[in-house]
């Protein structure tokens, strides 16, 4: 039978589960009077419910993006008069007419703009050797002008008529139904802007996000009031870091540094949980981060899906379901088998029970960046504080997420006390953020081995989001996403191991060629791609149609071409020109060889040092 330690472990988890199930959730809206004057139009209330109940729009986001013609109070007074509170609303045409009179079309409050620092021939892109890839990169560079938006100051002064949150500077939107700024998208958009030499647009985008932290205490998921209870992966510090490294603009960095600290404190105060381990993997209590919004109502921009999916649940189950859905949206991975208790069913979502390795690696990166930036400003106290914080946090990362048997980091599930040992590419985020003992190369190599064995690198279009192919969700197989492929590529490229670097190149090549082929066929860039088959296609699945545009996709391609433009070529040239760059690293090279190479390298280096 089980050892006493295991029994104690099981006992505590049952206790915790009982406690969590019995904890009553109250109704918390996605925005309210504390942060918006039109919450009863866009975040809750009868009008929102009726518009969705009668399915006035296929996409629920349409209605909550529509500006008001009159004030919220006038609007709701007219609505109550026309549709009395005690009568069910069943007349679709009537409600449609009401919207026609009291609302304006979505998107009409955003203005197009031309970035002032845009140039037709950015040096990093004109340096790309393959003429077709170069022409394509310059075409993508042109798309920044289509995706540039700014907000009229009238909206700042009259904000109660808009769900849009006013930001002072121009910015790049993802595209399609994503008409406003998005938080984590901005990191990869900025990587692309920097490849396009657009440092002042980069600074503008950072300034807007900084403004959000100053006003709301954190960066909301996106630029609408209905996002005011949830954030997205914390990459603002990463953006400031990239900008600072490129420009060495110390004045700007010093100006925004207190805001980065404020954002860090938000995550620490509002998104941590203490995990006590008694499984021999670390044996202690660790403070770690999770995605967990307080809201317990349907997401207004996905109201119909959320309410339909929760149809057969009782009220408490519904609140918990809505909270877990919005928390998954906070993770950026909406939705994925990663968050489902049975890895299959959306209704079994349990995001707040899952401690994500990517978020924790991002927080570790925040600590590292804050340490570095404070050091740059000469603030030793803060710098030392973050140095220590990161050193002890790395122990938590090791204890909670690392699995020595598998040789990889995984999400930790608090309900089961187990890690999710399936392959998901976010397991490479510790490599991307350098969040492990860098001298311990063995760890990076074993992760590489795990990913190789799992089949992560065996698809022609790039790295898939998971190997779970029966959920129909967009963050699962067979979709590949730019941010994930980028982090895997960069994680491998920044390692000191030649085989990992070669694999980084090969994924970059696949991702670039896949995107290129779809672009050649459709003239569009997409938010995600199907990685099966040699001619990839736009991705599918999830709760809305695949979107064109597309901010982070373009950003990743431009960044990868800026990195690899000297040796990446379109296929009919690839075989002859890039082969010499990869001696002995045919696709068959196994990670065991990586180990061998590494050991030999170390031996050789020690030999040099001893001498
Ligand atoms: C709501 O409007 C009032 C009056 O214009 C203003 O004082 C208040 O700050 C606004 N509240 C929010 C959360 O914007
Ligand atoms: C709108 O209505 C609410 C509740 O009836 C009231 O408290 C508030 O003062 C009104 N706002 C304006 C700007 O008239
Ligand atoms: C939703 O619409 C149906 C008709 O399609 C109506 O019978 C029902 O009362 C409505 N429910 C609410 C809450 O308005
Ligand atoms: C790139 O941007 C910098 C400012 O950040 C500017 O000084 C430089 O002239 C730009 N390069 C080109 C080719 O326009
Ligand atoms: C975690 O434990 C520490 C130390 O006991 C405590 O200060 C902190 O408030 C706890 N955090 C949470 C989220 O419970
Ligand atoms: C974990 O802690 C228990 C006491 O709480 C101790 O008996 C055990 O040896 C520890 N295990 C490890 C691996 O540190
Ligand atoms: C680590 O992986 C092994 C092998 O798959 C598994 O048995 C074990 O439960 C994992 N550890 C945790 C804490 O989940
Ligand atoms: C997908 O589903 C099929 C049929 O169930 C299965 O054979 C296959 O291994 C699954 N996984 C992947 C990654 O294709
Ligand atoms: C490579 O492909 C291009 C475009 O498809 C074609 O024009 C060219 O002839 C090809 N070159 C070789 C060497 O096959």
TrEMBL record:
Single GO biological process annotation from the record: trehalose catabolic process
Top-level enzyme category: hydrolase
PROSITE patterns to which the protein is assigned, alphabetical: TREHALASE_1, TREHALASE_2
Gene Ontology MF terms: alpha,alpha-trehalase activity
Gene3D superfamilies reported for this sequence: 1.50.10.10
SUPFAM superfamilies to which the protein is assigned, alphabetical: Six-hairpin glycosidases
Keyword Cell wall biogenesis/degradation: no
Entry keyword set: Glycosidase, Hydrolase, Membrane, Signal, Transmembrane, Transmembrane helix
Protein name: Trehalase
Annotated TM spans: 589-610
Classification via PANTHER family: TREHALASE (PTHR23403:SF5)
Signal peptide, first to last residue: 1-23
Reactions performed catalytically: alpha,alpha-trehalose + H2O = alpha-D-glucose + beta-D-glucose
């Amino acid at each position: 039978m089980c050892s006493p330690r295991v029994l104690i472990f099981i006992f505590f988890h049952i206790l915790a589960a009982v406690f969590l199930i019995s904890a009553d959730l109250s109704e918390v809206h996605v925005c309210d009077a504390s942060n918006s004057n039109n919450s009863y139009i866009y975040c809750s209330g009868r009008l929102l419910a009726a518009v969705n109940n009668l399915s006035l729009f296929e996409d629920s986001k349409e209605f909550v993006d529509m500006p008001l013609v009159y004030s919220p109070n006038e609007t709701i007074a007219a609505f109550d008069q026309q549709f009395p509170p005690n009568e069910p609303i069943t007349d679709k045409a009537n409600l449609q007419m009401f919207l026609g009179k009291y609302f304006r079309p979505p998107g009409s409050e955003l203005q197009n703009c031309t970035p002032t620092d845009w140039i037709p021939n950015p040096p990093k892109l004109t340096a790309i050797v393959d003429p077709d890839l170069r022409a394509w990169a310059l075409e993508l560079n042109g798309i920044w002008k289509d995706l540039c938006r700014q907000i009229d100051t009238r909206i700042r002064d009259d904000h109660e008529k808009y769900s849009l949150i006013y930001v002072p500077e121009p910015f790049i939107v993802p595209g399609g139904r994503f008409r406003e700024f998005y938080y984590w998208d901005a990191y990869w958009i900025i990587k692309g802007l920097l490849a396009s030499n657009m440092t002042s647009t980069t600074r503008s985008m950072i300034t807007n996000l900084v403004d959000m932290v100053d006003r709301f205490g954190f960066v909301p998921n996106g630029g609408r009031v209905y996002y005011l209870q949830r954030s997205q992966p914390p990459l603002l510090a990463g953006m400031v870091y990239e900008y600072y490294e490129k420009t060495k603009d110390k004045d700007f960095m010093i100006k925004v540094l207190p805001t980065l600290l404020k954002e860090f404190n938000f995550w620490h105060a509002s998104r941590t949980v203490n995990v006590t381990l008694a499984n021999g993997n670390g044996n202690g209590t660790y403070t770690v981060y999770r995605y967990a919004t307080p809201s317990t109502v349907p997401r207004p921009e996905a109201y119909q899906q959320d309410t339909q999916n929760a149809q057969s649940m009782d009220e408490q189950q519904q609140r918990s379901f809505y909270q877990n859905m919005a928390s998954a949206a906070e993770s950026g991975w909406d939705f994925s088998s990663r968050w489902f208790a049975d890895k299959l069913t959306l209704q079994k979502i349990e995001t707040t029970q899952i401690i994500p390795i990517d978020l924790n690696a991002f927080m570790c990166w925040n600590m590292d960046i804050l340490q570095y930036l404070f050091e740059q400003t000469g603030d030793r106290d803060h710098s030392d504080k973050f140095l220590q914080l990161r050193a002890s946090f790395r122990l938590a990362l090791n204890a909670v997420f690392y699995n020595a048997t598998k040789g990889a980091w995984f999400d930790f599930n608090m309900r089961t006390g187990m890690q999710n040992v399936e392959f998901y590419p976010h397991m490479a985020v510790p490599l991307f953020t350098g969040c492990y003992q860098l001298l311990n190369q063995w760890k990076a190599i074993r992760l590489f081995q795990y990913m190789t064995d799992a089949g992560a690198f065996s698809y022609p279009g790039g790295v898939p989001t998971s190997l779970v192919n029966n959920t129909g969700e967009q963050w699962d197989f067979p979709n590949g996403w730019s941010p994930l492929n980028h982090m895997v590529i960069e994680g491998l490229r920044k390692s000191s191991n030649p085989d990992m670097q070669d694999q980084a190149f090969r994924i970059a090549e696949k991702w670039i060629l896949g995107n290129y082929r779809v672009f050649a066929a459709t003239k569009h860039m997409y938010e995600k791609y199907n990685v099966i088959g040699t001619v990839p296609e736009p991705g599918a699945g999830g709760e809305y149609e695949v979107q064109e545009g597309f901010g982070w996709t373009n950003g990743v391609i431009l960044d990868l071409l800026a990195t690899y433009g000297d040796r990446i070529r379109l296929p009919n040239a690839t075989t002859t020109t890039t082969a010499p760059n990869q001696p002995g690293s045919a696709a068959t090279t196994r990670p065991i060889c990586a180990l061998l190479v590494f050991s030999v390298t170390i031996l050789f280096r020690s030999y040099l040092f001893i001498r």
